[in-house]
Design a protein that fits this description.
alpha+beta; two-stranded antiparallel sheet; 2 helices; 4 strands; about 40% helix; elongated
């Protein structure tokens, strides 16, 4: 009977075994560092939870600086395909258009008339 003894030393040509050992060591180090990071995060979270938030006092007053707001309304040029008289577009906006004439109008008017099919060439 022959007793075969297992060798615990890997062959110098066994690069897979050496890479495996290196990866195992690196994994162990990474796990230890992750555990330490979790402990630190838990301690910070406990410290934050331990702080008392006072909601009884009114918030601090902030200085509000008032400045005029200038909104540039975009305009479009259009020509209608037929005469339109007293067309209401939006609240309180009434328009009259003659066919073949060029008008400069706000973009919302152009979009509305183009959607309805009244703009020539659209």
């Amino acid at each position: 009977m022959t007793n075969t003894v297992k060798r615990s030393v890997t062959s110098p040509r066994d690069t897979t075994g050496r890479v495996k050992q290196t990866l195992e060591k690196n994994r162990d180090l990474a796990e230890k560092e992750a555990a330490k990071a979790q402990l630190v995060e838990a301690q910070v979270a406990d410290d934050v939870r331990a702080e008392i938030v006072d909601l009884t006092e009114p918030p601090e007053e902030f200085a509000i600086e008032e400045a005029p707001v200038v909104v540039g309304e975009s305009t479009r040029e259009l020509r209608v395909v037929e005469d339109l008289e007293n067309v209401t577009i939006g609240y309180g906006n009434t328009f009259s258009f003659e066919a073949g004439r060029t008008y400069k109008v706000p973009a919302f008017v152009y979009n509305h008339l183009a959607e309805k099919g009244y703009v020539w060439g659209s």
